[in-house]
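Last lecture ended with a question: if I hand you only a sequence, what can you say about the shape of the protein? Today we answer it with a concrete record. The protein is Sulfate starvation-induced protein 7. Below, first the input exactly as provided, then the predicted structure, then a couple of comments.
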Amino acid sequence: MNFSSHIGRLTRSAVLAGFAATLLASAGFVGSASANDLDAVKAAGTLNVATEDDFHPFEFVEDGKPTGYDTELLALVTADAPFKVNQQIMPWAGILPGVTTGKYDMAVTAVLVTDERKTTLDFAGPVAESTTYYMTKVGNDAIKSASDLNGKTVGIQAGSAMLTQFKAFDEKLKADGGTGVKEIVEYQSYPEAYQDLAIGRTDAVINTQINLQAVANEKSDVFAVGEAVSDPVYIAWATAKGNEKLVEFMNGKLMEARKDGKMYELQKKWFGTTFESMPEAIK
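The predicted structure:
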């Protein structure tokens, strides 16, 4: 996948979402109600999941089909499940609200686990580890370390955990005697943020190291990944509070994928590394 096609998916998000909705409707998906827990999912015969449309390498659409780490891991752990999976592909902004209101049974996307999110969501076992970094344009000698973000304009996805983490980092910059960042520009989707960075509208983009490295690997002549601006956190699939049986079921399947090494094979394929020291469950 080249950079231009990665950027182009931003303008196709609405089309893809509509395409996915049509597929789900033909498969018997009804978006107005969702199963409450595993027993209801089994009774309905369907697990309705929401997946982000463009968050490479976790999930994205290529040649009209969903792919990426989360998509392949979902197919692996539900291969022999007592229900079918209906996958709704959509922009990030609608995923967690759709899960908390019961429209979808689970968010199968790169959800960073935070204390705030634990108040409204339950999480299956972690599927990856994440640390938030910054990325700049190649040759930007004005930013050589994280402290150099003082006085700079940075881009980040609206409503993301990375935004919350970076605001905390910005406060640390000020506490350490700096001015803090000049401006935080919020984007609905990361491709637009990367495009603005490439043409110089922003000085840096904040995202997980995994995602930034994937972009930098594709365009090593344009982007360079910098330093961490957060402590490590875990990424996990999320469901609404109270779905203990569904979480237990998914945890069991994810642990099977860890024990037989298949999860780590997918991590190596999509991230170039593995996270074998993750806890078994999110506390």
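Comments.
1. The chain has two domains: 3-130+233-271, 132-228.
2. The longest helix spans residues 244-259.
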